[in-house]
Amino acid sequence: METVLIEGDITAQQVDAVVNAANSSLLGGGGVDGAIHRAGGPAILEECRALRASRYPDGLPTGQAVATTGGHLPARWVVHTVGPVFSPREDRSVLLRDCYANSLRIADGLGAARVAFPLISAGIYGWPVEDAVAQALAALHAATPTYVSEARLVLFGADTYATAVRVAAG
């Protein structure tokens, strides 16, 4: 699987699946979550409500992933995952890497060949960008999917992209 860094808007990616950095309610929110729900339209929210009513009455647990339609997005599917809130007192990096691994597992099960990821937990959840990139790349490089041939890490803004390129270069 090839891992590619891209500066851009995740909602515009021409891929099979986009990963949503969702909150546990699955009902939309701010940042990437809000952008995906706005761009994808009401079909995503409708499926998320159905998931809450059936499989996840208490919300999607941190580190887990679940798929819905992509609605009006160029992507066929949205894979929702809940990242951990950063804590300087508790190492939650395993949960962050689980977001990437479980999202890839779900995308692979759907037969998705190209998957676009945001930088999970690096926004409102406060994860330092440099470490968020390192965790994302470690999880993506460790994965062994059968269908996914390209994992895009879509970075919002020139500064975040430059940090990602620097971290990837080692």
UniProtKB/TrEMBL annotation:
Q: What is this protein called?
A: O-acetyl-ADP-ribose deacetylase
Q: In which domain of life is the source organism classified?
A: Bacteria
* PROSITE patterns, alphabetized: MACRO (PS51154)
Please indicate if the UniProt record lists DNA damage as a keyword: no
Checking InterPro entries in the record gives:
Macro_dom (IPR002589), Macro_dom-like (IPR043472)
Keywords of the record: Hydrolase
NCBIfam families from the UniProt entry: PRK00431.1-6
- E.C. no: 3.1.1.106
What's one GO MF term for it?
O-acetyl-ADP-ribose deacetylase activity
SMART domains per UniProt: A1pp (SM00506)
Organism whose genome encodes this protein: Micromonospora halotolerans
Please verify whether the record's keywords include Membrane. Answer: no
Q: One Pfam family for this entry, by name?
A: Macro
Which residue ranges does the record assign to the Macro domain? 1-170
